[in-house]
Automatic annotation (TrEMBL), chains A, B:
Record-linked SUPFAM superfamilies: cAMP-binding domain-like, Winged helix' DNA-binding domain
InterPro entries: cNMP-bd_dom, cNMP-bd_dom_sf, Env_Response_Regulators, HTH_CRP, RmlC-like_jellyroll, WH-like_DNA-bd_sf, WH_DNA-bd_sf
CDD domains attached to this UniProt entry: CAP_ED (cd00038), HTH_CRP (cd00092)
Record carries keyword Transcription: yes
Transmembrane residue ranges: none
NCBIfam families, per database record: PRK11161.1
Keyword field: DNA-binding, Transcription, Transcription regulation
Taxonomy, superkingdom: Bacteria
Residue ranges constituting the Cyclic nucleotide-binding domain according to the UniProt record: 26-96
Name of the protein this chain belongs to: Transcriptional regulator, Crp/Fnr family
Lineage of origin: Bacteria, Pseudomonadati, Pseudomonadota, Betaproteobacteria, Burkholderiales
Keyword Chaperone listed: no
UniProt cross-references to PANTHER family, sorted A to Z: CRP FAMILY TRANSCRIPTIONAL REGULATORY PROTEIN, FUMARATE AND NITRATE REDUCTION REGULATORY PROTEIN
Length: 243, 243
DNA sequence: CGGATGCTTGAGGTCTATCAAAGCGAGTGG
DNA sequence: CCACTCGCTTTGATAGACCTCAAGCATCCG
């Protein structure tokens, strides 16, 4: 998979106001003035090589991060070493909202490919959103959207069977890629079967078997991490086959 | 179970500034001035009889609600009629955060006993939190806490087995009741086995069997909905027995 | 008191996990 | 340039956890 948005030459000072992702990210719906002020806030960038952590559970929370390019996973772990992938984040999505509650990050965020994020110092964001109603509201919407998303994952984990889970996962991925201008039918997975399994509450063997079954059923073409969706309607049917 | 906080006589105008729950709720950490202003905002009350909805999926979103007395469940449902309980809320906890993202509620909130909530008009809250930094920050913390809580539920649903789930659920309940001044060992469940099962991703029979097993193992005393925790450390061990 | 609702318990079946082995592919070094 | 290695994936056989179906019991409430 190519980078969702071509990286500008380094010397060009990119900013929210001229970012290709502003329709998917925090700036959505802001006025020109608000955008300008946001630019002054979101000045820093940070590159995260594949496999490295953007932050880890327990790290002091100072900033939110907006994915510019690349791909991340977030995961939580319990004291006894259990591990659960809680989400995958692509360009335009926010990372770090978990950290606000206790001033420390509550999960790990790991880059699944070489990535770049915009650093959004949280104190500054709160300060600025006191002056700009719309910015404040947009931020609240983003947090709320995360809560709604999490509820959807609970529904998936609590009430769906393996095939339904994987189908729902693939449809969600393709829908998000499509919103970023990519094909809705051809995708390259950035994560391993094990990471998909962790996210979906399944073992990696079950994920692999389910991919194979979808291929046998003519829903997908699967070549390792290269996936082609042959029958989107069929996938939708699988998701809804539970009840 | 008794009401967590004795209901004041109706004629007494209760407000955030003299609410017994202010250490658990939105007012936490606010100055006297901020509290006073919050009082003017949170003027309305609403009673919800047992079994009735505070709001339903699709209802227009206008206000958040703080539970004053009683007990709620929230649940989401998919198009195909699948149903998932996403949480249980008791006194001092906020309901409705899901509604911010699309100006419509994204779940159902049902009272599991006769309940009373404080109505917090959301526009007013955003307006007021533009003036009061601390209120804004406290609200952000509450939203973030909800996100962290949801991640914990994902961990539970994605990686724990039936006994671990139920033990974790009971420990969470007793801990929250304890924070409200109740016994950490004796509790009365306000929800059915089926609702517990839906929350934990299990069938009601499995919940019932697991309760029986805990009783056989000397961890609990179970009399229908009356639960006595006999061995809290043992429950903790069950939660961590997975890995 | 009697019906309704919710809870418990049993038997048998299904789905997913577990254990094991072989295959594929990308990157490395000879 | 090829052989090798390592990580990841696929596939098979088996086992175990949880679900399903069914019956009986307890509790609540009119």
């Amino acid at each position: 998979m190519q980078l969702p948005i071509p990286v500008r030459p380094a010397e060009v000072k990119a900013a929210c106001s001229n970012c290709n992702l502003r329709e998917l990210c925090l700036p959505l719906g802001l006025s020109a003035e608000e955008l300008g002020r946001l630019d002054t806030l979101v000045a820093r960038r940070r590159s995260v090589p594949r496999g490295e952590a953007l932050f880890r559970n327990g790290d002091p929370f100072e900033s939110l991060f907006a994915v510019r390019t690349g791909f991340f996973k977030t995961s939580v772990s319990s004291e006894d070493g259990r591990d659960q992938v809680t989400g995958f984040q692509m360009a335009g999505e926010l990372l770090g909202l978990d950290g606000i509650s206790h001033d420390r990050h509550a999960c790990d965020a790991i880059a699944l490919e070489d990535s770049q994020v915009c650093v959004i110092p949280f104190e500054d964001l709160e300060h600025l959103s006191q002056q700009f109603r719309e910015l404040q509201h947009q931020f609240h919407k983003i947090m709320s959207r995360e809560i709604v998303r999490d509820q959807g994952v609970m529904l998936l984990l609590g009430s769906m069977r393996a095939e339904e889970r994987l189908a729902a996962f693939l449809l969600n991925l393709t829908q998000r890629l499509h919103a970023r201008g990519f094909s809705a039918s051809a995708l390259v997975l950035r994560m391993t079967r094990e990471e998909i399994g962790s996210y979906l509450g399944l073992k990696l063997e079950t994920v692999s078997r389910t991919f194979s079954k979808f291929q046998d059923d003519g829903l997908l073409e699967v070549k390792q991490r290269q996936i082609r969706v042959l029958d989107e309607a069929g996938l939708r049917q699988v998701v809804n086959s539970g009840c």
